[in-house]
Amino acid sequence: MYPNKFENLILKFQNLPGVGRKTAERYAFETLNWEQQKKEEFVNALQVLIDGVDTCKVCGNLSDGDICSICSDQNRDHTLLCVVQSPKDILAIESIQEYKGVYHVLNGVINTSKGILPEDINIDSLVDRINKDEINEVILALDPTVEGETTSLYIEKLIGKDVLVTRLAYGIPMGGHLDYTDSLTLLKAFQGRK
Questions:
Q1: Taking CA atoms, which of 136, 142, 163, 178 is between 20 and 30 Å from 15?
Q2: pLDDT of the residue at 188
Q3: CATH topology for 75-167?
Q4: Between 25 and 171, whose confidence is greater?
């Protein structure tokens, strides 16, 4: 139907999550119609896939250099450490503009059914960081899934009693209805009531 090169471009766009054939075609035609400079800027932006993205040597967040902007910010509370699963979680927390501490990215969670063990994620550097830095509180902000809970419990046991370990509250979302809430969420809401 289309020339091979253009068909290949469509197929590459289809590799993106949530992009079907029609959307991929629209993306391909859109990029085809861009001015040369815009095409070059797009290709240069994709070069990061080959060159790799820098990660912060302190927390594991995405970075433009050795240390990310959050870790290098002296106005943040470096005694307060929030543990997250991925860099996307940092963006979600930062969007509420309430948390002023620093982060640690695990880049995954323990999942024995998929063969992901504690040594496969960024836990050793977390423990090293807690031992060498003056961390007063570790906030475990992992997804409320079986794997997230397993990872949280594992980290809690590793940290021990020297540092305060807290978790994000679970419960009914704003605008939610009790009659549509599953029993586990309702249980967590009762357990975490204030």
A1: 142
A2: 78
A3: Dna Topoisomerase Vi A Subunit; Chain: A, domain 2 (3.40.1360)
A4: 25
- What's the alpha-carbon Rg for the chain, to the nearest Å? 21
For residues 79-89, average pLDDT: 95
Q: Which residues of 99-108 are buried (b: 16+ CB within 10 A; e: fewer)?
A: bebbbbbbeb
For the chain, what percentages of helix, strand and coil (3-state, to nearest 5) are there?
45, 15, 40
What is the predicted pLDDT for the residue at 178? 67
Region(s) of the chain under CATH 3.40.1360.10: 75-167
Query: How far apart (Å, rounded) are the C-alpha atoms in residues 31 and 9?
Result: 10
Query: Does the pLDDT value for residue 43 go beyond 80?
Result: yes
Burial category of 194 from C-beta neighbours within 10 Å (exposed 0-12, middle 13-18, buried 19 and up) = exposed
What distances in angstroms separate CA 129 from CA 78, 88, 91, 119, one per listed residue? 11, 21, 22, 16
Q: Is the pLDDT of residue 11 over 90?
A: yes
The CATH classification of domain 4-51, taken from the options 2.40.30.170, 3.90.420.10, 1.10.8.420, 1.25.40.10: 1.10.8.420
